[in-house]
Design goal:
about 140 residues; alpha+beta; Jelly Rolls; globular; disordered N terminus
Length: about 140
């Protein structure tokens, strides 16, 4: 099982070009992998074994709308922050590996940031805080 998981992860990482970006939340540096196409957003963090502490995945959308994420084929316990077009965090939710129930935004979101579960709370980040450095200009 682990060999198959490793093979799938390696194949996905080779086939998915990704960009990294530095964001700041309350002055805290976050290194994120940016995914902005339908294919890369749909794949997200599936089949990966770990996420380096202090890094995450930023899902960008071309519009603001209610969003919902699930954890299909996702092994890593995550927390997700939904972010509006102004860069303000709407809500932060914990997510359970392999759970197929949708975790919803509390309003229209233009992006979502997935981090290791508990990262936001450990760093004192709450709804209402702002994310600096979002590449929203490409869509506005």
């Amino acid at each position: 099982m682990n060999n198959l998981r490793t093979l799938i992860r390696e194949m996905l990482e080779v086939s998915i070009p990704s960009a990294t970006r530095e964001l700041y939340i309350n002055g805290i540096l976050v290194e994120v992998e940016v995914v902005a196409t339908e294919d890369t957003r749909n794949r997200g963090l599936m089949f990966r074994d770990r996420l380096i502490e202090g890094s995450g995945m930023l899902f960008l959308f071309s519009d603001s709308a209610p969003r919902s994420f699930w954890m299909k084929n996702t092994y890593i316990p995550l927390s997700i922050a939904y972010i509006n077009e102004s860069g303000q965090i709407l809500n932060i939710e914990d997510m359970i590996p392999f759970n197929m129930s949708g975790v919803r935004s509390n309003g229209p979101a233009m992006c979502a940031l997935e981090m290791n579960r508990g990262w936001f709370s450990r760093n004192g980040i709450r709804p209402g805080d702002y994310v600096e450095g979002l590449p929203l200009g490409a869509f506005l």
